[in-house]
Amino acid sequence: MKHISFESGAIRAGDCVSNAWNQMSAKFGLYLGVGLVTYIMVGCIPIVSIFLFGPVMAGFYYVSLKDMRGEPVEFGMLFRGFDKFLPLMIIGLLQSIPAIIIQILRFVSDFASLMGSGGFGSPPSRRGDFFQSSGLPDFGLSEGLMIGLAIVGVILFLISIVWAIVFRFAIPLAMEHDLGVTDAIKLSASAAFSNIGGIILLFLLYIVVALLGVLALCIGIFVAIPVIWIADAFAYRQVFPLIEQRMNFEPPPPTAYGSSFGQGL
Question: DSSP state, 240?
């Protein structure tokens, strides 16, 4: 893996959100359209969405980062992530593991609720007799299953937070550099935990942005989501600045080194 350095403690959460809003406002129609298509492709197509998550989000980051540099952008660039489909798909699948497990637990929870309500055609009285014994509290299999799911849910929630931090920069790293899946994830984790304070503050601001979007007659959520994703791109660029941004290419003045050689009298 080629050496890619990152900045520690570099994320300025407020700047990320405000810059994201300014960038979206400048090309509102483009980002509204790109954001809507991205949301549909990564969240509204059963089964298929989890395979598209990595490449499509990479395409959104590609548009955002290119626009950030002042370069021309267009809608079709959203699909540039498909140029690196396989590694981005794998990263997206790995990043989605907590969400997949949560969906499975939700189905199990619905099944437990159905059991507790006397589903599957059994008379409620019979099912009630089955789940209780004389002289004992009315505590059945479904109730125990629900408590177990609640405990697992809390543990999974904590794991998902750590998981999200680990994968924070993996997709844009794999998109911008020729990194394999493992290298992108490792570098993402190192950079993210070196900027943990900024990431947590950024998450809290995202909650505020999302709430404002919901309050705006729910239509605003289609503006809030692209703003959040663009802010992610700004956070990534703060942590992984471009090489040319980290170097001073402007030549020093002739007198910078205490000499007047070559200057006119």
Answer: S
Name the nearest CA neighbour of 240 among 162, 146, 157, 174: 174
Residue-level pLDDT at 140: 58
Q: Which residue has the tokens 């994968």?
A: 167
Query: pLDDT above 70 covers what percent of the chain?
Result: 77
Q: pLDDT tier at 83 (50, 70, 90 boundaries)?
A: very high
Q: Classify residue 177 by its DSSP letter.
A: S
Rounded distance between C-alpha atoms, residue 172 and residue 187, angstroms: 11
Nearest to 50 by CA among 59, 58, 42, 39: 42
The per-residue pLDDT of the chain, averaged, comes to: 83
DSSP annotation of 138 reads S
Q: How far is CA 225 from CA 38, 51, 104, 170, 251, in A?
A: 10, 20, 25, 19, 42
**Per residue in 91-110, pLDDT tens?**
999 999 988 888 787 777 67
Using CA atoms, how far apart are residues 144 and 118, in angstroms rounded to an integer? 15
Model confidence over 35-67: pLDDT tens digits? 999 999 998 888 899 999 999 999 999 999 999
For residue 203, the tally of other CB atoms under 10 A from its CB is 14
Tokens of residue 126, six digits: 């019979």
Q: Is 190 exposed, middle or buried (0-12, 13-18, 19+ CB in 10 A)?
A: middle
Reduced DSSP (H G I as helix, E B as strand, rest coil) percent helix, strand, coil of the chain, to 5: 70, 0, 30
Contact in structure between 230 and 202 (CB atoms under 8 Å) = no
CA 222 to chain centroid:
16
User: Phi and psi (nearest 5°) for 74?
Assistant: -150, 165
Per the model's pLDDT, the better-predicted residue between 87 and 216 turns out to be 87
